[in-house]
Amino acid sequence: MNFDEKLAQLLHHYEEVREKVSSMVEDPAEFAKLSKEYSDLTPVAEKITEWQNLNSEKKNLEDLLQDSSLDKELKDMAQEDLQKVNERLPEMLHEIQVLLLPKDVDDDRNAIIEIRAGTGGEEAALFGANLLRMYQRYAELQGWRFELMHESDTGLGGIKEATATISGKGVFAKLKFESGVHRVQRVPETEAAGRIHTSAATVAVLPEAEEVDIHIEEKDLRIDVFRSSGPGGQSVNTTDSAVRIIHIPTGVVVQQQDEKSQHKNKAKALKILRARLYEHQRAEKAATRAASRKSQIGSGDRSERIRTYNFPQGRVTDHRINLTLYKLDRVIDGSALDELIQALISEDQASRLADLGDM
To answer: What residues contact 76, with CB distance under 8 A and at least 6 apart?
Structure first.
């Protein structure tokens, strides 16, 4: 089956799904499934129809140019139109190919983002706080909901670690490439000699998992409760409301103490634990797939250095795609972060298209 036949088959299937959706489907689950499939197919079906119409227009223009009775002015106009069509066709073909790429099943999920200060002491903690604000501002600009679940601050404006949930349309699709080591180069305010220090913070972006995705057995959990404490060790409240959950089979540990209610802390901890276990499953599957691929936009491993923020030079460099933007202030305030993210998405699409071509 050639490419045109595949497109015709997809259009035929799209029409079948549309007819089923428009008919009275009594089963709510079946109707929801069909509605989602229809919604997913609509963009590519519209693009294929546009592609077919453009090819028809090309043929009509070519036939018109073969007409010897056509006067010069009309012939020049037809030639100009044909040139525009020929320029547009490869672009549209690429758009269709991207739409036909297998989707990451988790792209539409919400995300849990974890930020931890790495090497560099207080400067690393301050940079971690910068990253937290960057993602919060980016979420606001995207129209997403940002909820801080846990934050361990240093008392000096920095954070040792922080966890937040980001909810909205296509959150994980955009943020999944942010996982890894983010490095900062700048002169700390406390540095009298003006020397540039290099510090780092790690970011992990996890797709939010539901109970149906990851079933956790109670027997596999060890749950400890203790009294919450804030920066410097002072008591936050006088009840044993903080919760530490250890998933015995994997050794994953999650701790929550931001809420005054033990029940709420446990619920938040389980949410994070579920996301980490789900991400572990994703990583195993990705490693299997990657074995047959020539290249990747990063593994998502938080030990991998992905980006450097150089304050003296006002630049941000993403090492995976060798892209440098001289607008560090706008990246850090979230307003230009999308330029990096869109470039990463485009590179990933190009890589996957190349892999499909080699198959």
So the answer is: none
Cβ neighbours of residue 69 closer than 8 Å, sequence gap 6 or more = none
> Residue 147 to residues 57, 112, 128, 131: CA-CA distances in angstroms?
51, 10, 17, 15
pLDDT recorded at residue 295: 44
Least confident residue range of 17-26, 128-137, 178-187:
17-26
Which pLDDT does position 2 carry in this prediction? Answer: 74
39 residue type, one letter:
S
Distance between CA 228 and CA 238 in Å, rounded? 8
- CA 72 from chain centre, in angstroms, equals 53
Q: How far apart are CA 85 and CA 73, in angstroms?
A: 19
Q: Measure the CA–CA gap between 200 and 126, rounded to whole angstroms.
A: 10
φ/ψ of 170, rounded to 5, equals 65, 30
**For the residues 169-183, what does the mean pLDDT come to?**
93
Q: Taking CA 345 as the corner, what is the angle to CA 339 and CA 348, rounded to the nearest 5 degrees?
A: 140
Count the helix, strand and coil residues of the chain and give each as a percent rounded to the nearest 5.
50, 20, 30
- What value, to the nearest 5°, has the Cα angle with vertex 39 and ends 99 and 19? 115
Q: Map tokens 């404490």 to a residue.
A: 229
The pTM of this model reads: 0.72
The upper half-sphere exposure of residue 341, i.e. CA atoms within 13 Å in the direction of its Cβ, equals 20
User: What whole-number distance in Å separates Cα of residue 185 and Cα of residue 187?
Assistant: 7
The Cα–Cα gap between 246 and 270 comes to: 10
Would you state the pLDDT for residue 233?
A: 42
First-to-last C-alpha distance (Å) of the chain? 15
